[in-house]
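Long-time lurker, first post. I've been practising inverse folding by hand and with some scripts of my own, and I keep getting stuck on stretches where the structure tokens seem ambiguous. Below is the full token string for one chain I'm working on. Before anyone asks, I'm not after the true native sequence, just a reasonable design that respects the backbone. If someone could post their per-position residues I'd love to compare against what I wrote down in my notebook.
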């Protein structure tokens, strides 16, 4: 396998799949440029070696049609500022403009291609379109973890045209290494914390994690289904009645594998799903009729916290409660703090897959976590144990 550190890009044109799908406001201003910042180390290494970079990305969901509101041109301007060098922009990702601008690149130049998804062939994984992209560069770098679970032209199919010259960018490699530290041979004890709204979206994650963790903490709305499966009264809480057997099977599997399963014993309950609802605390299995559990309670926090602080490896996916509403934030805040504290004491922590990432950012704790993943859906599928096509294509 080629790596960023050992490969020399001197004299090469690197075709780099990046994730520049940055959030923008109604006026097209970038509201969060973390994705753009995340690719800088890869681009800088290519340029420092004496190579040039051809960046390709999608932005939004233009559904295979040209949509000026989803042009990457403003992102090219922003990247110029971040890189301190003027980024050249091609008005289409394939065709004469892209070809001419790629051909004219000199060492140290950066070219950004227009939104890949203006062509339906991108999401369709079209072979000829992939070949046209491949003809622009000499070496393929995939640094777009956020789309690694998609078998699109630029993320997967294009790699076929670089059998001897394909590698992961720094960001992608960091994501892969972090998951490896959790699912590969983790330092023990390893604790997985899974929360979020529904069991249904995390069944495969739970099953896969049972194969590698020592302790499994379940919180958030999905915990109610487990409480109910154990015969508890969950009132008006979010419960997936059709998954009670699945929850029981997971409880049994944890027991059989010797995994210590932690389900909340108490809850913060509310009489409505609203910020200004009346609130109370009660045992998680005795929620009064008409009330709903919207956060874990103090006893659960204490138990979960102790498990986390005793761990050497921690994976966290999904909030403990409805953390978007202040009265139901305490559980998620406490767990985020515990993960940060354990990390400070030497544990490896990975926070990945959606809302828990938003939570650690919101609480200002991201720099106290070993690795905060950039890929929501991709991380979830990775944690399910799936082989991501974007990763397989570079390895294969
Ligand atoms: P997910 O996208 O599955 O990770 O779920 C994240 C969402 O779960 C967040 O928007 C939370 O508000 C929601 N959530 C967390 N705990 C609960 C709960 N006890 N009841 C209902 N929704 C919850």
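-- Answer (accepted) --
I ran through it position by position. Result:
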């Amino acid at each position: 396998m080629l790596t960023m550190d050992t490969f020399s890009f001197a004299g090469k044109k690197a075709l780099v799949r990046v994730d520049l799908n940055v959030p923008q406001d109604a006026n097209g201003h970038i509201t969060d440029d973390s994705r753009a910042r995340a690719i800088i180390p890869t681009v800088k290494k290519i340029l420092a070696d004496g190579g040039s970079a051809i960046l390709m990305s999608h932005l939004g969901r233009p559904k295979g049609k040209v949509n000026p509101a989803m042009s990457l041109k403003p992102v090219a301007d922003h990247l110029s500022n971040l890189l301190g060098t003027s980024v050249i922009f091609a008005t289409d990702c394939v065709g004469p403009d892209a070809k001419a601008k790629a051909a004219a690149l000199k060492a140290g130049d950066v070219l950004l291609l227009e939104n890949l998804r203006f062509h339906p062939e991108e999401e369709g994984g079209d072979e000829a379109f992939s070949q046209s992209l491949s003809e622009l560069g000499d070496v393929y770098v995939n640094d777009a973890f956020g789309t690694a679970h998609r078998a699109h032209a630029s993320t997967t199919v294009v790699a076929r045209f670089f059998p001897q010259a394909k590698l992961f960018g720094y960001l992608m490699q960091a994501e892969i290494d972090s998951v490896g530290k959790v699912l590969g041979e983790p330092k023990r004890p390893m604790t997985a914390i899974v929360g979020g709204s529904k069991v249904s979206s995390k069944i495969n994650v739970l099953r896969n994690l049972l194969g590698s963790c020592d302790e499994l903490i379940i919180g958030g709305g999905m915990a109610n289904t487990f409480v109910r499966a154990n015969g508890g009264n969950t009132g008006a809480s979010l419960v997936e009645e059709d998954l009670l057997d699945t929850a029981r099977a997971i409880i049994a599997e944890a027991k059989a594998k010797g995994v210590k399963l932690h389900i909340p014993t108490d809850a913060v309950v509310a009489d409505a799903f609203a910020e200004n609802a009346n609130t109370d605390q009660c045992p998680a299995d005795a929620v009064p009729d008409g009330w709903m559990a919207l956060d874990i309670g103090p006893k659960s926090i204490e138990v979960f916290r102790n498990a986390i602080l005793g761990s050497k490896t921690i994976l966290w996916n999904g909030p403990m409660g409805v953390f978007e509403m202040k009265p139901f934030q305490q559980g998620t805040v406490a767990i985020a703090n515990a993960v940060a504290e354990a990390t400070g004491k030497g544990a490896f922590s990975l926070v990945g897959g959606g809302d828990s990432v938003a939570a650690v950012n919101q609480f200002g704790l991201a720099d106290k976590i070993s690795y905060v993943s950039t890929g929501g859906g991709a991380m979830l599928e990775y944690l399910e144990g799936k082989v991501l096509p974007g990763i397989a294509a570079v390895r294969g």
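A couple of notes from the structure itself: DSSP finds 15 helices and 15 strands in the chain. The chain has two domains: 13-168, 177-383. Happy to go over any region you disagree with.
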